[in-house]
Amino acid sequence: MDYITTLKYLHSKSISNFKCKSESEFKKRHSKSNFIYLIKWNKEDVFNWGTMSSNSNRIRKSSILNKKLTGKYDRRVDYLMLHKIYGLEIIYLFEFKTNEESRFHEGKIKESKNQKHCFSGISVDNRDEISNQIYYLFKKTKWFLQFDDSLKKLFNEFFYDVFLGKLKHPTNSKRTFYYGDSLEPKFLRTINKQYLEEPVEKILDVSF
To answer: What does pTM read for this prediction?
Structure first.
């Protein structure tokens, strides 16, 4: 499915839907229900989709509508970079009766594209390759190039050693950190890398 076909599919399967481009618009329409979100970036056929249950507001956790970081979300770093690469066109929310139903239709979109990830317009196969490709494009933007080399070097450390690092907890070797932990408030302090907070805030345009 391309972007238009995906929209038509979700319109036909959902019980209601709305679109937004700001947090105020989102809050007016959002309810504690089960959704598939679709984020359309300002480039042809580049979009993301995923599920949202009544207990997990992933649009808020993505920080693309509100710069204040909250909770954890494994796609947040990718989405923030895509936001700077292409800009946000629109976000759609499609409501479903159950979480199982929304997950089923999320899977149908992946199946139609013969892929296991929820990224369209990025031609790579696995999770790390997706992030690396997005980072490659991000580093070419005017936004990224404005920062001095020392800040970019620290952000590079965050990206490879923290975000993609799959780190162990400093005092609990049985706990492994994955993508979603990297921008959770106070996480960098937990792993003694609080010096990376400033480059992350400036380069991803967020706040802890």
So the answer is: 0.93
Q: Hey, where are the domains in the chain?
A: 3-127, 136-204
Output the tens digit of pLDDT for each of the chain's 208 residues: 899 999 999 999 999 999 999 999 999 988 889 999 999 999 998 999 999 988 889 999 999 999 999 998 989 999 999 999 999 999 999 999 999 999 999 999 988 888 888 899 887 778 889 999 999 999 999 999 999 999 999 999 999 999 999 887 788 778 778 888 889 988 999 999 999 999 999 999 999 9
- Phi, psi at residue 5, to the nearest 5°? -65, -40
By DSSP bridging, strand 88-96 and strand 47-52 are unpaired
